[in-house]
Write a sequence for this structure.
């Protein structure tokens, strides 16, 4: 089973590339309509400096947006999980705010803020929701017997929160973070369409307008790569933070608590 | 490390439902009292009130004869299941007890305890990687290191297989003989009560109110035939109590 799983991973992308190349062979579309995989690859290589220049802007907006969403989201979640009043006053509105298509806010944001800030805010708005929801569920959902037991052994409320409630919240929170990591890239790129002078989304638009479709597709591939790397980074952070979920004993690199 | 625990007319309702109805109960210092009752009779709630995790509507919990309004943290609860923290290694879990007792050398104490409870070699293991018996031993070690004078046990050995449970019973009897904590044990298993307790109280179905004391013939550890007879008396008392509950 192990072998077949490893072999299964590249089947879809390889099949997709093959189909794409087959379309090129049989339909022979013009280059600007549909470039071949090879043309996209050579455009990526040829414009690698330009791609990296624009990627830096998108990566920066993505990471700062994600970081802000993480701080704000965790503070909101801690408050909501701790206080019924705050839950009643704030939580329904956070949920209701998701009815507003956040991407449609981008043009308005661009009126108020500069290009970079718009990207950061849209990215943060997109990923704060999964962080808040999973963190609230996590902070609420731990086994109550654990907290009750350590309280009877003399643990303070603060000790119990930090050493029992918070660790129990981490697994769901990491699921939310994985979603947020991918959403953040989307938010940053869409904001670039509204107005920007730098970024992979901006480059995609520019290249398409100039019929450089191969370059536009190379930029999209770079965006996908950023999303995947972020996703994997969160997955790696999870493995480092929660070694007990993956192994029977504590690894030597893990911090002693 | 002993203290007297008394419950005086402890009464508690949840909505319209009476859960505890004027419960009277005293555990002398160093004594082990088992409270046997059917599932859902309010035993666990009684322990919550005793521990200070929730307050009774009426009545009082006394420690050494004095009201103890801030008793949370003075009576160690061992709930069903081991309640170890899954993200901590066995050593770190046991050290929690020592740390909460204010010990400066919590790790060293935990290491000693690990040896004494037959868990040496497993200090880096997470609870999920160990057997139920080992986890329960670690929970016992944690409770010992916490050093509270009163222990409240809520069917702590219920999830174990028969052999492991018998082994842990023997270990816990030896442990209590050494440390002499005051123990209130709730269980639905007459065999467990007959094995572990100095005195046995039997309750009917909910609400938990009038408790009937079963005459316990010999001090612990009791020979098997005495234990078997005691178990039968407990079962009889449970039957009587259920009948009383039906007619009431």
């Amino acid at each position: 089973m192990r072998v077949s799983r490893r072999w299964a991973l590249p089947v879809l992308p390889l099949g997709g590339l093959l189909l794409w190349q087959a379309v090129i062979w049989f339909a022979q579309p013009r280059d600007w309509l549909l470039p071949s995989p090879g043309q996209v690859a050579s455009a990526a290589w040829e414009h690698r400096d330009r791609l990296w220049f624009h990627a830096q802007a998108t990566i920066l907006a993505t990471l700062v947006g994600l970081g802000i969403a993480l701080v704000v989201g965790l503070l909101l979640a801690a408050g909501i999980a701790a206080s019924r009043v705050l839950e009643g006053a704030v939580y329904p509105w956070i949920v209701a705010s998701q009815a507003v298509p956040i991407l449609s806010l981008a043009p308005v944001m661009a009126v108020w803020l500069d290009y970079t800030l718009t990207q950061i805010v849209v990215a943060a708005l997109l990923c704060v929701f999964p962080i808040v929801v999973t963190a609230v569920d996590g902070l609420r959902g731990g086994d109550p017997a654990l907290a009750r037991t350590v309280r009877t052994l003399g643990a303070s409320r603060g000790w119990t929160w930090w050493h029992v409630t918070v660790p129990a919240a981490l697994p769901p929170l990491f699921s939310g973070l994985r979603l947020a990591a991918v959403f953040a890239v989307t938010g940053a790129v869409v904001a670039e369409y509204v107005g920007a002078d730098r970024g992979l989304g901006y480059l995609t638009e520019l290249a398409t307008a100039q019929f450089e479709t191969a370059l536009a597709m190379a930029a999209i591939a770079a965006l996908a790569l950023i999303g995947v790397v972020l996703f994997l980074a969160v997955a790696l952070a999870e493995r480092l933070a929660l070694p007990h979920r993956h192994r029977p004993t504590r690894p030597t690199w893990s911090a002693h608590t | 490390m002993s203290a007297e625990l008394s419950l005086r007319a402890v009464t508690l309702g949840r909505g319209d439902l009476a859960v505890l109805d004027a419960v009277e109960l005293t555990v002398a210092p160093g004594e082990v009292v088992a409270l046997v009752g059917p599932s859902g009779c309010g035993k666990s709630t009684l322990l919550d009130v005793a521990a200070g995790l929730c307050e009774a509507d009426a009545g009082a919990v006394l420690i050494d004869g004095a009201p103890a309004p801030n008793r949370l943290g003075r009576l160690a609860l061992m709930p069903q299941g081991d309640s170890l923290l899954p993200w901590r290694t066995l050593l770190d879990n046991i050290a929690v007890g020592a740390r909460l007792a204010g010990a400066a050398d919590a790790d060293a104490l935990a290491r000693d305890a690990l040896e004494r409870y037959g868990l040496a070699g497993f200090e880096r293991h997470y609870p999920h990687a160990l057997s139920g018996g080992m986890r329960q031993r670690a929970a016992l070690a944690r409770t010992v290191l916490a050093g509270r004078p009163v222990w409240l046990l809520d069917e702590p050995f219920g999830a174990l297989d028969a052999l492991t449970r018998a082994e842990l019973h023997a270990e816990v009897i030896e442990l209590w003989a050494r440390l002499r904590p005051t123990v209130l044990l709730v269980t639905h298993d007459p065999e467990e009560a007959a094995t572990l307790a100095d005195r046995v109280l039997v309750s009917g179905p909910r609400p938990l109110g009038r408790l009937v004391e079963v005459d316990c013939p010999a001090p612990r550890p009791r020979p098997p035939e005495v234990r078997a007879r005691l178990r039968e008396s407990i079962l009889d008392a449970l039957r009587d109590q259920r009948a009383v509950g039906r007619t009431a």
User: Anything to note?
Assistant: Residues 36-241 of chain A form a domain with the MetI-like fold fold (CATH 1.10.3720.10). Chain A has one domain: 36-241. The interface with chain B takes residues 143, 145-146, 148-155, 159, 163-164, 167, 170, 242, 244, 247-250, 256-257 of chain A (CB under 8 Å). Chain A has eleven helices and no strands.
